[in-house]
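Residues determine shape. Take a concrete instance:
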Amino acid sequence: MKSIAFHNLGCKVNGYEMDFMQQTLQDKGYHIVPFDEKADIYIINTCTVTNIADRKSRQMIHRARKANPEAVVVAVGCYVQAGKENVLRDEGIDLAIGNNRKKDLLPLLEEYLAAEKRKGTGDCGAADKTLQGTTIIDIAHTEEYESMKLTRTAEHTRAFIKVQDGCDQFCSYCIIPYARGRVRSRDMEDALEEIRGLAEKGYQEVVLTGIHLSSYGMTGGNDFTQSRLPGLIEAVEQIPEIKRIRLGSLEPRIITDRFAAELKGAAKLCPHFHLSLQSGCNETLKRMNRKYSAEEYYEKVCILRENFRDPALTTDVIVGFPGETQDEFEKTEAFLAKTGFYEMHVFKYSRRAGTKASLMKDQISEELKTVRSKILLELGDKMSCEYRERHLHSRAEVLFEEAKEIDGRQYYLGFTKEYIRAAYEIQEGAAQEKISGRIMTGELTEFLKSDILLFGS
């Protein structure tokens, strides 16, 4: 069989979908090889969330073409969906597959290969552009949830489970609603069947994920009391082999006293909540079309802290959004310090064609974005250290994942429920007991590294 190399860009949803595509082709008998090796077929699962993501997608496509000019190069996903016209002009791509068609990768690929064989040219670079067009649907008008089911994942100890797709929020900087379409949700029993199958194979932690996870079970709109996410969590809780449930990014507006109480009742739920913020300044939030104020966001944080003991709160922040004044930036900085996050993902605003923000006046210079980003990254490092310090000398459950050498010593590394990275030293000369995939309880005794705490059983 032909050899195939995969490369994934972007979010955890993309990662899940790539795992499915790889599983499908491997089960069919294709030979999977690393992306940096010569292959007969290259499949790039693209991202388009920023201009940088677009550029990386193009770079990986052209790297594949250069690695083997005779190979079939397949581009799939968000970059293909959002940039159809540019994709169809790209001679580096033989086959383009948009979103909601990844499940059909195998038949689409084999149809392409059969067509090339019939042509008898052996020139895979002379792509059939008509075939490309048939693989990119009108994503804005589909109500179909693209059904996929994994029997194994690239992760060894936790399984990411996609349960939702699409977004109806239309933030002014974001292209994703145009690349992923409207909100669609997976049938709950279908998701549970997948989780049960993975649990039987030893996975103890599942991460529920989606493009806009809080909209799970909804048909659109902003009434998040209609979300069926609590019901899904409750159902996963009933699977005996699953010991941990972790959530992907949440919409802040889903957090209410009732929602938090429902989450608190789920004993297996990890107290680790990612609430996307983007800015701590109301004027900036309004330009971003984020539908909450900084004060409302803070109320949601307080609700979570009232219901969970020192939960790990993480977030995303954009610096240098169009029109962001020094005063607005300082408001964001002060808000972040006041809130006290465990981790922050800081992004410099990237002008994305096709979004309202790309047409806004007062675009910020890259130099100023870099200065502001550095300030927030340093603040984030400080808050992360403070959070880990609060958990020193406390008892913790750690799910261990892999063995790794650090400063000449051997350790097993894993994560607590709060997603604090912990290391358990393997004593020289001791029996090499395999603990990868095991959950152990012990004390977090000291810092091994700035981002790793030492674990003692």
Residues 3-137 form a domain with the Rossmann fold fold (CATH 3.40.50.12160).
